[in-house]
Design a protein that fits this description.
mainly alpha
Length: 104
């Protein structure tokens, strides 16, 4: 286990619902090639706070890589809706591009 993962896990013990920490840990697991654990932390993040827009793109990409196309499409759609509500047009555009690349 990498040192970064160990540190993030320790921080999460104190703040298990911290979206930034969950997201960072999921990204570390992606880098380590452990997409199953990464997915768990991305999904935990969205369960804790469905308005945390950054997670939708990365979870969608993970789902694409693992062949879960329908789930990726659904995540991109939900993420676009959340980004629009947050008036986060940068994230909306990234999600829309990923969605369109997958669907069309």
């Amino acid at each position: 286990m990498s040192e970064r993962i160990e540190k993030l896990l320790k921080f999460l013990e104190a703040s298990p619902k911290d979206c930034f920490l969950n997201h960072a840990l999921a990204l570390e697991y992606v880098k380590a090639g452990d997409e199953s654990r990464a997915r768990t932390y991305f999904e935990t993040n969205l369960n804790n706070d469905p308005h945390y827009v950054a997670t939708y793109y990365h979870l969608g990409k993970l789902l694409e890589r693992t062949g879960a196309t329908d789930a990726a499409v659904a995540i991109y759609e939900k993420g676009m809706a959340e980004a629009k509500l947050a008036k986060d047009m940068h994230s909306y555009n990234e999600l829309q591009a990923a969605y369109e690349d997958l669907v069309y």
